[in-house]
């Protein structure tokens, strides 16, 4: 019916096409990351209140954005694998979970590092931080569930169901945590208010967000390729591939 | 393969393939099970008999290729007895989770006495032996009006008299126009045609 | 004879589950006992000052109820999986969606409902002001049903695993959080003299959503677990 759709279901095709994409995407990602980092760290003005410590925003915000988007990538891959029984979607979902968890952890870690000079504390139970923590738990739950199954096909299906349940729950959790925080916050300072950001600071941030998306895609594809090789290790095309590598 | 069959197909399997742990258990398996047929699936241990039965009844949905079409309600007996130890045989049949119809008390009683559990209707099932658990399931066969039976090793833990009763039950099911698919290593001593499906050799006879 | 309708079959499953629970009264008593014991740990940890206890009472009662619900969730489908009843249930011609709702209903009646009924006793022991007790009971009534539904998803996904106990907590505790937030908020609002109604309404809305969606996830989870 859809030729491209069927191609996606074929491991060798996916392996070769992901290799071709990575050949371009990896250098582009590296260049964007380095450019964005240098731009953000050296060529933007210091912030009025926070001084230079705000510059961690160039890692913190992109990591947080991508961490959240990653969950949706994982859940959508899970849905595709459940509905169309596409095994490659299973691979994508399995590969997305640890990558997403890593990005969530980076966002939380940089947030804590940023919090120390800004708020004087490593951790506050702020709405966004709490939601990110819950997101990390959701990711780790998927990883743990996958590892717990001996039958990897069933593991993929179970994780797909779990990530879909999580996807329905993320907005609910986010909204309720947000509401809970505003209830308890009282008259203290609002940490996450709507602050306008000057364009000279914004452009490098946008570049970094794009670079992080690309980085996520690279990690996802690399992880998927590793998973593909492991799953298909007994098949012809992987054997041929190994033979070629050994000869080279 | 079953061109000589009289009834309409109640279960059709089309090019079933199953692979477990890199080993192909069966490949391109197609057959029609028709009304009034008794099928025995044979094969060495690990040949995929239980897996095939689970695919046929619909418990296995992933991990195999091919299609199964079923046109009539079924009754499946697996390795496990599906009996609740805390319930009595009578309650186990009355509250059965398989969605059977609600049986009247007399029917349950007569079925239980026919399978040799007279006097055991109201004792907790955990006091019964494994063979008696099996016999409660035989009572299910008596009560059920499902036209298709899928039985996984039904002779396990049943004594000689029970085996004969079960064989008589199979014959009467087939005679009434029902179908039976069962796995067993035993040679059936029944008074009707038995079709064989050997998973080790891949032969349908 | 034809197969019974879905509603009739549901009632049969409900009766079966309740009968099984009654045959093993310890299983009903254990979560309540757990609730009592954990509640009695808090004064030892927080100090016996009535004011401190009253401040923490809504959260303490709710977290304890949540934990005792969590501990029983694992068992919803476990024994049916072990003895093969679950296979039979999946093959039943009636919709699995309603069947799992019957299981969850029975689970809620034997855990959450009883917990909500006995909760005023423990509320008094923790010095919760009198005006909060009605809100506590109401929020527990709705909230524990939600917890049972969410817990059922975790139970369905892990029932095929030998050691599902710890894993199920990892999977479902994050999903419990909204329930905890609005449950305690309802009690706190009532204690401080505000209406608890809005919070109960939100819990009710979440319950409706869970009744609509959780059985789908549970049914899918059970089919996967049986297949594995």
Ordered list of secondary-structure elements with their pairings:
The complex is a heterotrimer of chains A (248), B (205) and C (228).
Chain A: H1 3-8, H2 11-42, H3 57-83, H4 87-119, H5 127-148, H6 152-185, H7 199-231, H8 236-247
Helix pairs in contact in A: 2-7, 3-4, 3-6, 3-7, 4-5, 4-6, 4-7, 5-6
Chain B: E1 9-20, E2 23-34, E3 38-42, H1 49-57, E4 64-70, E5 74-77, H2 89-94, H3 105-114, H4 130-143, E6 148-152, H5 160-175, E7 179-183, E8 195-198, E9 203-204
Parallel strand pairs in B: 3-7, 3-8, 5-6, 6-7
Antiparallel strand pairs in B: 1-2, 1-4, 8-9
Helix pairs in contact in B: 3-4
Chain C: H1 6-23, H2 25-46, H3 50-73, H4 78-82, H5 85-91, H6 96-125, H7 133-158, H8 165-191, H9 197-227
Description:
- The complex is a heterotrimer of chains A (248), B (205) and C (228).
- By secondary structure, chain A is mainly α.
- Chain A has one domain (16-184, 197-247).
- Chain A has 8 helices and no strands.
- Chain A has helices spanning 3-8, 11-42, 57-83, 87-119, 127-148, 152-185, 199-231, 236-247.
- In chain A, helix 2 (11-42) packs antiparallel against helix 7 (199-231), helix 3 (57-83) crosses helix 6 and helix 5 runs antiparallel to helix 6 (152-185).
- In chain B, the strands form 2 sheets. Chain B has a 6-stranded mixed beta sheet with strand order 5-6-7-3-8-9, with helices on both faces. Chain B has a 3-stranded antiparallel beta sheet with strand order 2-1-4, with helices on one face.
- Chain C is 83% helix and 0% strand.
- In chain C, helix 3 packs parallel to helix 7 and helix 7 packs antiparallel against helix 8 (165-191).
- Chains B and C meet through loops of B and helix 1, helix 4, helix 5 and helix 9 of C.
Question: What's this entry about, in short?
Answer:
The complex is a heterotrimer of chains A (248), B (205) and C (228). Chain B is an alpha/beta fold and 205 residues long.
Number of DSSP E strands of chain B: 9
Number of contiguous helices of chain B: 5
Unreliable stretches of chain A (pLDDT < 50, length at least 5) are 186-191
DSSP helix fraction of chain B: 25-40%
User: What sequence of helices (H) and strands (E) makes up the elements of chain A?
Assistant: HHHHHHHH
Radius of gyration of chain B: 17 Å
**Mean pLDDT of chain A, rounded to whole units?**
85
Distance between the termini of chain A: 39 Å
CATH homologous superfamily name of the largest domain in chain B? P-loop containing nucleotide triphosphate hydrolases
Oligomerization: heterotrimer
Fraction in beta strands of chain B = 25-35%
Total separate domains of chain B: 2
Q: Tell me what portion of residues of chain A adopts beta-strand conformation.
A: under 5%
Shape of chain B: globular
What pair of chains forms the biggest interface?
Answer: B-C, 30 and 34 residues
Query: What is the CATH level 1 assignment of the largest domain in chain B?
Result: Alpha Beta
Broad shape of chain A: globular
CATH-defined topology of the largest domain in chain B: Rossmann fold
């Amino acid at each position: 019916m859809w030729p491209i759709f069927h191609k996606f279901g074929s491991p060798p095709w996916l392996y070769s096409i992901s290799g071709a994409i990575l050949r371009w995407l990896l250098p582009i990602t590296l260049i964007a990351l380095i450019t964005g980092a240098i731009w953000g760290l050296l060529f933007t003005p210091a912030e009025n209140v926070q001084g230079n410590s705000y510059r961690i925003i160039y890692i913190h915000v992109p990591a947080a954005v991508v961490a959240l988007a990653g969950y949706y990538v994982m859940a959508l891959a899970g849905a595709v694998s459940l509905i169309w029984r596409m095994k490659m979607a299973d691979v994508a979902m399995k590969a997305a979970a640890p990558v997403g968890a890593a990005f969530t952890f980076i966002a939380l870690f940089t947030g804590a590092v940023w919090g120390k000079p800004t708020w004087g504390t490593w951790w506050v139970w702020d709405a966004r931080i709490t939601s990110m923590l819950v997101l990390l738990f959701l990711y780790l739950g998927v990883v743990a569930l996958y590892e717990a199954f001996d039958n990897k096909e069933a593991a993929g299906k179970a994780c797909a169901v779990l990530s879909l349940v999580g996807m329905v729950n993320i907005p609910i959790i986010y909204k309720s945590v947000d509401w809970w925080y505003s209830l308890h916050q009282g008259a203290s300072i609002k940490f996450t208010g709507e602050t306008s950001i000057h364009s000279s600071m914004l452009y490098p941030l946008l570049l970094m967000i794009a670079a992080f998306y690309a980085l996520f895609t690279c990690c996802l594809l690399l992880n998927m390729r590793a998973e593909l090789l492991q799953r298909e290790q007994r098949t012809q095309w992987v054997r041929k591939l190994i033979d070629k590598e050994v000869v080279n | 393969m079953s061109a000589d069959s009289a009834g309409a197909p109640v279960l059709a399997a089309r090019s079933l393939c199953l692979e477990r742990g890199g080993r192909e258990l069966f490949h391109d398996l197609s057959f029609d099970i028709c009304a009034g047929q008794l099928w025995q699936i044979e094969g060495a241990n690990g040949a995929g008999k239980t897996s095939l039965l689970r695919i046929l009844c619909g418990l296995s949905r992933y991990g195999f290729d091919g299609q199964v079409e079923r046109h009539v309600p079924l009754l499946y007996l697996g390795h496990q007895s599906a009996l609740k130890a805390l319930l009595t045989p009578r309650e186990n049949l009355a509250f059965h989770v398989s969605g059977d119809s609600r049986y009247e008390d007399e029917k349950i009683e007569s079925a239980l006495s026919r399978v040799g559990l007279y006097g055991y209707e109201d004792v907790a099932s955990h006091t019964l032996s494994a063979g008696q658990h099996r016999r409660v399931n035989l009572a299910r066969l008596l009560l059920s009006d499902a036209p298709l039976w899928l039985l996984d090793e039904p002779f396990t833990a049943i004594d000689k008299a029970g085996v004969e009763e079960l064989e008589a039950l199979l014959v009467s099911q087939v005679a009434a126009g029902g179908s039976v698919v069962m796995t067993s290593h035993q040679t059936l001593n029944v008074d009707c045609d038995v079709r064989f499906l050997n998973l080790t050799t891949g032969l349908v006879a | 004879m034809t197969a019974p309708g879905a509603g009739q079959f549901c009632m049969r499953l409900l009766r079966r589950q309740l009968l099984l629970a009654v045959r093993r009264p310890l299983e009903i008593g254990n979560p309540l006992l757990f609730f009592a014991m954990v509640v009695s740990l808090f004064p030892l940890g927080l100090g016996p000052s009535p004011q401190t206890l009253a401040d923490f009472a809504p959260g303490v009662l709710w977290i304890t109820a949540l934990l005792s619900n969590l501990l029983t969730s694992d068992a919803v489908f476990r024994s049916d999986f072990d003895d093969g009843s679950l296979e039979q249930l999946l093959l039943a011609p009636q919709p699995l969606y309603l069947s799992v709702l019957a299981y969850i209903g029975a689970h809620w009646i034997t855990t959450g409902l009883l917990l909500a009924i006995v909760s005023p006793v423990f509320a008094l022991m923790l010095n919760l002001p009198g005006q909060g007790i009605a809100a506590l009971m109401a929020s527990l009534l709705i909230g524990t049903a939600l917890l049972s539904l969410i817990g059922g998803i975790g139970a369905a996904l892990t029932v095929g695993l030998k050691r599902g106990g710890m894993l199920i907590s990892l999977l479902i505790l994050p999903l419990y959080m909204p329930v905890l937030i609005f449950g305690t908020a309802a009690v706190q609002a009532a204690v401080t003299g505000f209406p608890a109604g809005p919070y109960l309404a939100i819990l009710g809305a979440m319950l409706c959503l869970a009744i609509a969606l959780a059985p789908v996830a549970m049914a899918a989870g059970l089919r996967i677990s049986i297949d594995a």
